[in-house]
Amino acid sequence: MNIHEYQGKSILKSFGVAIQEGIVADTPEQAVEAAKELKTKYNSDWVVVKAQIHAGGRGKGGGVKLAKNLDEVKEKATAIIGMQLITPQTSAAGKRVNKVLIAQDVYYPGASPTKEFYMSILLNRSTGRNIIMYSTEGGMDIEEVAEKTPHLIWKEEIDPKVGLRDFQCRKVAFNLGLSGNAFKEMTKFVAALYKAYESTDSAMFEINPVLKTSDDKIIAVDAKVTLEDNALYRHKDLEGLRDITEEDPTEVEAKAAELNYVKLDGNVGCMVNGAGLAMATMDIIKLSGGEPANFLDVGGTANAERVEKAFRIILKDKNVKAILVNIFGGIVRCDRVAQGIVDAYNNMGSINVPIIVRLQGTNAEAAKKLIDESGLKVYSAIQLQEAADLVKKLVVN
Amino acid sequence: MGVLVGKNSKVIVQGFTGGEGTFHATQMIEYGTNVVGGVTPGKGGTTHLDRPVFNTVKDAVDKAGADVSIIFVPAPFAADAIMEAADAGIKVIICITEGIPVKDMIYAKEYIKARACRLIGPNCPGVITAGEAKVGIMPGFVFKQGRIGIVSKSGTLTYEAADQVAKAGLGVSTAIGIGGDPIIGTPTKDAVELLMNDPDTDAIVMIGEIGGSYEADAARWIKANGNKKPVVGFIAGQTAPKGRTMGHAGAIVGGAEDTAQAKMAIMRECGIHVVDSPAAIGKTMAEVLKSVTA
């Protein structure tokens, strides 16, 4: 589960991680009040207005602006709140901005130059251990850094038996070229950040940039926090941070119906049992000349109720020109699934797009007969290749 | 014969008396798997499905000689069940449970490292040695006996492959469902290695999906090991968008390296017969075997 920058920072702060402070605002008026409050605390007129959406690259799309006085705060907040923000990580339509974070300006001049770093914590899947990944090249796209200057990225693996050790924190600070007070602050920063990651059962932290200020503080200027869905049951407080306005409404509805659905941009919908087979079905749609409109795993119990729900969700997408149902009946019998499809179809009245049903496995022949004799506008198949050929015939031509 | 499980395996079911455990234990027994009992804490001393129930895995090992365990315990308790099995001396631990928190698996994986056991899964369909033992949730009849080994991250896609293999006039030695989670006990390479060393396996179907580097690691190992047996490969998720989790917790494209296309390219370079279409697995395997014997 992704959360907003302001929510991520508040989690970080609660574990003692120094952050760029800020106040979230829903309206330009609230933004101005927030800026006033920050001025009394930090004695500066300058603040940063930051769009709160679940996507990176906000600055590139015009979602992060410096404001040097209250008039500018109002002007910039007015422009950003309600805008469709398009970044390299959003779709072409962008995402609507509902909130802005009014944040303190942390790039103030001082005794030493400021310096931006990159830091993330994530699972190294090859070793099954967490790593801290960090770089001197902060504020940039890390994939670009990995491509151009891979020697400037370091990784520190955490041994689960003993956790993150002090020497590892020191290693990070040394590799980042720090000394004096900034060095000490960085070791504290790394330790606190890892504690926050572990304690919240997070799946990923990405802090880009981590800033060394001109007075040698180390702070998180941004925070991309991804919590692990499977561990949310033991973090009821964090569950509430979910912002469903950031998600596709159809995906939200599917989730409520316990269907695993991801919306895509194509024209052929699909309904499949099993995640691997569902991805393979998307691939076969593409190989047949169509484009998959979604990923949908109906799971093990493909009964009439679930099938109907799945049909309704797929059909919300107006781009869908055909639906491919691909069920490998193992322990679920194909004839039962076929009956479910027929019942769902009848309950829904008419479905205006052709449906291709491929049922293989237990009682596949009986299932095909049931579909063929139902009188519905449903094309049946048993072999996967037959289903692919039907997609080609019905959609591409 | 096959690998991991066979007719001599003594299998116990952890989470024996629960709904899932009962249903699948019944199916396993019907298949002919030697299920010697099960574990449900607090129900030790009773019987279920005509087999003894034990309080601990240790009891099941001591009293029933169990050496294989299949786990149906709910996600919050499953990592603990894996560690209990490892501690009790179970040799092959097969964890079906989906949704175990990553943090729990980090500890479980570390814990079992120091013990002489192999973990398959979690979030997997299990392992079947055709005609001998089914220790999983797969439909047994799909797996015709034969000499093709299958390694796969996914359940229904494994059944699909086994079915195509049968339609092509071939059969399965052992099919290993390694699981679709970010942390699994036996990565693709280890499962492939078992089948490469199995005298009853002539060729291997290797099915992967987006996310992680297990397939690339396996492909490089296969090449380094001299491509001893032909391998037909497929990677699901060629059309999956970046940054989205596709059903399996581990199926997510992070960078350029873990896309289906990147994995397929590496597999081809390493001499694996990669198919673009999941419908071509069985046919391609038959062709490859024909060209080898010709």
Descriptive report:
- The complex is a heterodimer of chains A (397) and B (294).
- Chain A is an alpha+beta fold.
- Chain A has helices spanning 5-14, 28-42, 70-80, 142-148, 166-175, 180-199, 236-239, 249-256, 275-287, 304-315, 334-347, 364-372, 384-396; strands at residues 22-25, 47-51, 64-67, 84-85, 95-96, 100-104, 115-124, 129-135, 153-157, 202-212, 218-220, 224-227, 260-263, 268-272, 294-297, 322-329, 355-361, 378-381.
- The mean pLDDT of chain A is 93.
- In chain B, helix 3 runs parallel beside helix 4 (102-113), helix 5 (156-167) packs across helix 9 (281-293) and helix 7 packs parallel to helix 8.
- The model of chain B has no long low-confidence stretch (mean pLDDT 95).
- Chains A and B meet through helix 9 and helix 13 of A and helix 4 and helix 5 of B.
Topology, pairings included?
The complex is a heterodimer of chains A (397) and B (294).
Chain A: H1 5-14, E1 22-25, H2 28-42, E2 47-51, E3 64-67, H3 70-80, E4 84-85, E5 95-96, E6 100-104, E7 115-124, E8 129-135, H4 142-148, E9 153-157, H5 166-175, H6 180-199, E10 202-212, E11 218-220, E12 224-227, H7 236-239, H8 249-256, E13 260-263, E14 268-272, H9 275-287, E15 294-297, H10 304-315, E16 322-329, H11 334-347, E17 355-361, H12 364-372, E18 378-381, H13 384-396
Parallel strand pairs in A: 14-16, 16-17, 17-18
Antiparallel strand pairs in A: 1-6, 2-3, 2-6, 4-5, 7-8, 7-10, 8-9, 10-11, 10-12, 13-15
Helix pairs in contact in A: 2-3, 5-6, 10-11, 11-12
Chain B: E1 11-14, H1 19-31, E2 35-39, E3 47-48, E4 51-54, H2 57-64, E5 68-71, H3 75-88, E6 92-95, H4 102-113, E7 118-120, E8 126-129, E9 133-136, E10 145-152, H5 156-167, E11 172-177, H6 188-196, E12 203-209, H7 214-224, E13 231-236, H8 260-269, E14 273-274, H9 281-293
Parallel strand pairs in B: 1-2, 1-5, 2-4, 5-6, 6-7, 10-11, 10-12, 12-13, 13-14
Antiparallel strand pairs in B: 3-4, 8-9, 8-11
Helix pairs in contact in B: 2-3, 3-4, 5-9, 6-7, 7-8
